[in-house]
Amino acid sequence: MTDPEHFRFDVADGVAIITIDRADRLNAFTRPMAKHLVALFDRVDRDDAVRAVILTGEGRAFCAGADLSPGQSSLSSAAPNDPVDWSDPATRDFGGLITLRIYDCLKPVIVAFNGSAAGMGVTMALAADFRLASEEAKFALPFVRRGIVPESASSWFLPRIVGIAQALEWTLTGATFPAQEALRAGLVRSLHPPEGVLPAALALAQQIATHSAPVSVALTRQMLWRSLGMAHPMEAHRIESRGIHARARAADVREGVASFLEKRAPTFPDRVMEDMPSFFPWWDEAVY
Hints:
Blueprint: E1 2-3, E2 7-12, E3 15-20, H1 31-46, E4 52-57, E5 61-63, H2 94-103, E6 109-113, E7 116-118, H3 120-123, E8 130-134, E9 138-140, H4 154-162, H5 164-173, E10 176-178, H6 179-185, E11 190-192, H7 197-211, H8 214-227, H9 233-247, H10 251-261, H11 272-275
Parallel strand pairs: 3-4, 4-6, 5-7, 6-8, 7-9, 8-11
Antiparallel strand pairs: 1-2, 2-3, 9-10
Helix pairs in contact: 1-2, 4-5, 8-9
């Protein structure tokens, strides 16, 4: 189906595909588009029929970044010394709203870079669990070349994914780099012919949707991402202990064991919207 703010949303066989559909502008983003994409991820989390989600683009580019054209750019025209109310939600970077929503997602997120990506076209994808790319794609983080700084919480995500030295090189030079360099640095998982990126993403999503318990997937995804901010492994041990104790009594475990012994695909009964354990969420939500 088609959604109003430049997106298509389709669900089949447990996989939701969100397609950025603004090809005439190389899928460049506006603030209203960001709000709509956040709403689509809300929709994904509420739908127990969705086991995984793919984000991709229409046309020859994945996303050219924020739309900088007159009337669309969110860059301020105020004078440098004008007072700013930092508590005003309007001061928040809208790319970061997307990244933080993906970070909180209860379903695995796969980005299929069907083409090139720049600026927030790269950074909003950093909270995804997997990134696959066209072998013809090019990437750029050109913030310093525009007189701004990295956004979409990329100063947190990017060094954790590719290491601090590589993150500094890409962000301080703002240079464009090829898909092969992105692969070597670990920014993307794999490269494919342009026509093969989405099928490869679908195959990966189907592997999760078919064989993995949704509640366990949701917990595992959050456990691993949030462990990046833990100060000591004891914090991970506490959460894992709760998870093991809670899930050991769940119907999913009985089905998981039975399907293994009977050599068949599992049909897990527990649902993310109904059967998350009582200790979830275990983190402090007051982060902003």
